[in-house]
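# nightly structure sweep
# worker-07 picked up a monomer target from the shared queue
# config: single-sequence mode, recycle default, output format = structure tokens
# input follows
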Amino acid sequence: MFNLRGQLTPTQSIILGVAGAALIIGLWWLLAEMLAVPALDYRAPNLDDPALQNLNRDSLLRADSIQFANAREVGKIYKILPTPLHVVQAFPKLADEDKLASHTFHSVWLNLKGYFWAVVLSLLVGGFIGFIPFFNGLFAKPVDALRYLPISALTGLFMLWFGLGDGMKVAFLAFGILVYMIPVIVQRIREVDDVHLHTTHTLGATNWQTMRAVYLPSVFSKFVEDLRVLTAISWTYIIIAEILNNTGGLGSLIYWLARRDKTDKVFAVLLLIIVIGILQDRLFVYLDKRLFPYKYYKTKADGLREVQTGIYIVLGVFALAVLLPLFVNIPAGLLLQGAGLVILAAIGLMVMGELKLWKGLQTA
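# output follows
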């Protein structure tokens, strides 16, 4: 258990994971109690009270000091750091008083749209730079240098270029991901094994056949893993953009809650963002396993075709939901209703495929 790079058993991993979480929560609770201040049953004297008009300043201060010294402690105020219990109790209040569900959907939708444009543009630009030496010589080094840009310092320019609406937020997020993804795409293209390329050339494959059979599977199989790394960065950028204009989203909600000293609610929203990030990470892992099964399974398993078809349908519907409003004026309600029906059908197909896949793996 204490050997360098030693392996834990599944039971040890579970026990240590639970113990670590409990330790963190315990330390959090202890620190919150240490930083808490007592709440006193005390009120400062009302200077407009006629009974106090004849008293001088020293008498008022003495009376106030005596009243403060004799005040009864009625609880604690957790202004700096709330306890875990207060954070959990803040969720129902957030849902009832602060429209948490609406803000969450708004932020997630902006996050997904930013990812969409970042992926599309990075594949196009990175593909040109990675495949064509002319463009590689022109733009490889300047694009690689963009990674050192302090993206948060560009918020003023994005507000000038795109205004204060959701378009600015999506553009800001897409650019923040784009500057990291383009060099990664170029690197993944360069990492394709020469053995596979020589094999396709020996078999007489055309450039398009080589790209479809070798380059695309190799690049995309690693690209999903690269997207996982940027999940945390994407939420950082979207929260920054939402704080700027305060028109909706979790970033805007955090800003206004902090202004009102609602630290328990602020921590609850931050905890929600962490949960969403973990779910996004698991989603990328799932997509990687199902779209590139050869990385995980030695034989072709039944049900994968149905699962992959369902995934492609969901991704296609998402792409249409992002692109159609740019060209066609479709009511948002009608768009959501149509997309929802297609996605439900695709999920049903994926469930059927997962059941077949599970049965196949059980009998293998």
